[in-house]
Amino acid sequence: MAGGARASDVLRSIRGLAVPSRLEGMARFGIETRTALGVTVTELRGLARGLGRDHELAADLWACGIHEARILASIVDDPAAVTEEQMETWLRGFDSWDLCDQACGNLFDRTPFAFDKALEWSVREPEFEKRAGFALMATSAVHRRDWPDRDFHVFLPRIRAEATDERNYVKKAVSWALRQIGKRSAELHARALRTAREIEAIDARSARWIAGDVLRELESPAARRRLARSAGR
Q1: Do residues 118 and 83 touch, judged by C-beta distance below 8 A?
Q2: In a domain? residue 137
Q3: Mind listing the pLDDT tens digit for each residue in 69-120?
Q4: What CATH number corresponds to the domain at position 158?
Q5: How many domains does the chain have?
Q6: pTM of the model
Q7: Which single residue of 36, 59, 123, 217 could bond 67 by disulfide (Cβ 3.0 to 4.6 Å)?
């Protein structure tokens, strides 16, 4: 089936799952709904299971501009076929935190460019481009088991340096990145805690919020039990 024809079929399936009454709830969670239909990510993942990896289909779904179709594109695309140019093009299309995080966690963090883009994007000025840098750090900490822990050391000074950005979607992503790095191993847990304490000393509201968010999770009993189980393996 030609790529465009297949994309049309998939779009019909997406529209068939749409529940417009969900849009109000999505908006309350800060999701941009101007191009959304009201389809859950769970439903999109179910649809993706029947599609497999398809780079051409992903390009067509992204190009249509529909919010859920773009999320589905990030699920079905083939990381091995993704180029830096594509990543930059999609990045400029991020208009909502969920699209940003889905693209990073479903696709971008599995590409050969993930490490460099995390650093590059984390100093960009546009809010969702900058968020994408830290989202890549966070999702890579979870998914990239082929990276040694020392690779994540490089992210910590950048996290500390950008902890004064007061924008909501940036500061939440900075916290997310540090928390996920800290949950990766005992060694990174200790480094993340030190970084959080350094951030806590910065005279900025966002820094104090980030430090509190990170310390609350990484010093929790659940976090310590998780580390103990990991050390016993």
Answers
A1: no
A2: yes
A3: 999 999 999 999 999 999 999 999 999 999 999 999 999 999 999 999 999 9
A4: 1.25.40
A5: 2
A6: 0.93
A7: 36
